[in-house]
Amino acid sequence: MKKKTVCIIGLGYIGLPTAALLSYNGYSVFGVDNNTKIVSTINKGKTHIAEPDLSKIVKSSVLKGKLKAFTKIQPCDVYIICVPTPFHENHKIPLPNIDYVLSATRSIAPLLKFGDLVILESTSPVGTTEKVRKELIRLNSDIKGVHIAYCPERVLPGKIMKEIITNDRIVGGITPDSAKVVADFYRGFVKGKIFETDQKTAEMCKLTENSFRDLNIAFANELSMICDKQRIDIWQLINLANKHPRVNILQPGIGVGGHCIAVDPWFIISQDKKNSKLIHTARKVNNHKTEWVINKIKKTLKKKFLKKNKKIKIACLGLTFKADVDDLRESRALRVARILLEEGFDVSGVDPNVGTNVGFPILNLSKAIKWADIICVLVKHHQFLIPKTKKQLIKLEALDFCGVLK
């Protein structure tokens, strides 16, 4: 049986890996992105995202002619929307912006035929898939036989190519028949279980998963601030508390970044502020932790350099939103570094995953250790966990906000 042709709209952190996986599995894949540089890069068999195994698969698929990139939608049998869903600016509570989703929908509408699949993978507020359906009807009244569904990604940056295959998936269809047809499509390349439901439940499921993690991290972050005041080792405390068979506290950090856990809870809050008080509080706690870290650094500097009239040099170890990735989206570490820079400190970053200038110099670790007056460990990259490096940082009395030195 001939495999369906697939059009992936949006070639970012989810779209490109999805395109790579499908093309690797024998599908003819047409990737679409409005960024001409991204399109050109992919058509050369290269990638603009650092992710294990991704570049190898993209190169192979492009050479075989299974993956091609374009700036315009290509006629296919399956359309998968993986575009960004940012926030509208200047709102007290961030409001989700689904303009890119609707724009992609409008591009698809004139090309649809009987039996086609339209799948939304972009993280979206509840009701977005229904808006996609209504927009398609408005622009192409004859969508009978077109299967529309929502299927959110569940992958971890740094492990995307593995988890996109092995993780279970939720498929929420506009109709039960659409859920079944789209689920069968995913069963063709996903080894994890595929669960069928309606579109609103699938949309809420994605938001619930990341809100749950945000709550759990907020608890750890709140504990870390309490323990700092009480002079209790938070890392030892959590380790001991987790010996309880029904306790599993996550690790504290400098807040929550990335384009999932730091974002998805707002999609729930924006739609029902009255009944999402706990979720809203977790967001406030995790955002406050970043400001607490900045104040902690400043207090330490004031105490250490009280009598020295000099511009203090700060080396920030780790700039990405989480360990061992190159992703700077919503990075709290980058926020810490930039605010310290704005407040007059001399700031440099140390991050083996970041090669570009981010508004201040990026140094290697050995140079930063010689250069800096104080070192702040913000992200738990594995390079900082090497015993020799840890000994150096302990000797220098580095401020450790992520448990590297424990």
Detail the topology: elements first, then pairings.
Layout: E1 6-9, H1 15-24, E2 29-32, H2 36-43, H3 54-63, E3 67-70, E4 78-81, E5 87-88, E6 95-96, H4 99-108, E7 117-120, H5 128-139, E8 147-150, H6 160-166, E9 169-173, H7 176-187, E10 194-198, H8 199-230, H9 234-241, H10 264-271, H11 277-304, E11 313-317, H12 332-342, E12 346-350, H13 365-371, E13 374-377, H14 387-395, E14 399-400
Parallel strand pairs: 1-2, 1-4, 2-3, 4-7, 7-8, 9-10, 11-12, 11-13, 13-14
Antiparallel strand pairs: 5-6, 8-9
Helix pairs in contact: 1-3, 4-5, 8-10, 8-11, 10-11, 11-12
Concise account of the structure shown:
The protein is of the alpha/beta class and 406 residues long. It is 42% helix and 13% strand.
Tally of helical runs: 14
Rounded mean pLDDT is 94
Radius of gyration: 23 Å
Which residues form runs of ≥5 with pLDDT under 50? none
**Superfamily (CATH H level) name of the largest domain:** NAD(P)-binding Rossmann-like Domain
The CATH level-2 architecture of the largest domain is identified as 3-Layer(aba) Sandwich
The CATH class of the largest domain is Alpha Beta
Secondary structure category: alpha/beta
- Helical residues, percent: 40-55%
Strand content: 5-15%
Strand order of the largest sheet: 3-2-1-4-7-8-9-10
